[in-house]
């Protein structure tokens, strides 16, 4: 096992790559050794690492949201921030950034390693880190679009030969597919789409199989992208920028997706590009398709808190929704009308506003499509009640009549 005490000291801030790109052996080594190192503040994004559910008391865990296993973390400090702000927060030292733990591909002939499937915030954080420690995984695919890291830049490395972890996910069901069919009606040939991850986004991507010449610019790339490329749907021919290219920051999906990335016209760019408002403003036909935990009767979106517990995050939703509503084609919020029997269309949000109602053009459930763009406040409630689950509409209508 690597001795991190030579490189990480008490009071340091440490960050690591997220999802399948997480340098899990190095993170586990930190968890094992932090008691001997002393107090450390650490930043993690989306993680599949169950050990982060409960960390040693010497480690303060920070994130932009409760993603993946962080939903079950006993001690988590959430920094509410748009994803587009993460590069600046690393630069300002507002986020832990002294030491970076990264998983990279083996160096090429030029001695340079790729960040592989996890460029996103990592590529921006690397520039501000005093020390970099790498897991060089022989199975991490080298990707293009962002300069790599010279091998000599790393203070220490370990070599591994392990599969890049696939993303845990459930298959879409009939409700997801019904929502996806409605969303597909809102996307026009030639649009550039942004879609997240999960069962509903998977159904939405598959629901776009009848479209032509779509573009793709999103923070995350999934197996649904691979299928649409194979069907000739995602050509990017009509994109205003990055014509013909799939633009993303990270890949989250199956082993097949990771193995076939080299077949795709994909470029991996840092968050300072993928989520940059100035870049997104150039995509005049951008359609942002995002999910939510709940939507209130004025169209405000909550994507962070359920029952007082942090179970999500702002992420890139506000970045893409705002750009799509202001300078792109349209901003869509798609969600199931109920979760565990409770309505997701609510009189008032149970947590903070993640995306402003002015940045939401359409709300879609399995029961219908609520057009909110240009809709005055006194009409919005009725439109949203109409797409709520039938068994909850009476209570929602009563809440509308009674007011706040």
Task: Provide tags for this entry.
404 residues, alpha/beta, Glutaconate Coenzyme A-transferase, eight-stranded mixed beta sheet, 12 helices, 25% helix
CATH topology of the largest domain: Glutaconate Coenzyme A-transferase
Number of helices: 12
Largest sheet: 8 strands, mixed
Uncertain segments are none
First CA to last CA: what distance? 59 Å
CATH architectural grouping of the largest domain? 3-Layer(aba) Sandwich
How helix-rich are the residues, as a percent range? 25-40%
User: What is the oligomeric state here?
Assistant: single chain
What is the molecular shape?
globular
Total discrete domains: 2
Q: What structural class should be given to the helix and strand makeup?
A: alpha/beta
What is the CATH class name of the largest domain?
A: Alpha Beta
DSSP strand tally? 26
Task: Report on the architecture of this protein.
The chain has 404 residues and is α/β, with parallel strands linked by helices. It has two domains: 10-160, Glutaconate Coenzyme A-transferase, CATH 3.40.1080; 174-402, Glutaconate Coenzyme A-transferase (3-Layer(aba) Sandwich), CATH 3.40.1080. Helix content is 25%, strand content 22%. It contains twelve helices and 26 strands. The chain has helices spanning 24-37, 86-91, 120-126, 174-184, 199-207, 223-230, 255-259, 271-274, 277-280, 317-326, 377-386, 390-402, and strands at 13-16, 40-43, 59-63, 77-78, 99-104, 112-113, 131-137, 149-150, 156-160, 192-195, 215-217, 220-221, 246-248, 250-251, 266-268, 286-290, 294-296, 301-302, 305-306, 309-310, 330-334, 338-339, 342-343, 345-346, 362-365, 368-371. The strands form seven sheets. An eight-stranded mixed beta sheet has the order 15-13-11-10-16-21-25-26, sandwiched between helices. A seven-stranded parallel beta sheet has the order 4-3-2-1-5-7-9, sandwiched between helices. α1 (24-37) links the parallel β1 and β2. α4 crosses α5 (199-207) and α5 packs parallel to α6. The longest helix is centred in the N-terminal third of the chain and has 14 residues, at 24-37. The chain is globular and about 65 Å long. The termini are far apart. 52% of the residues are buried.
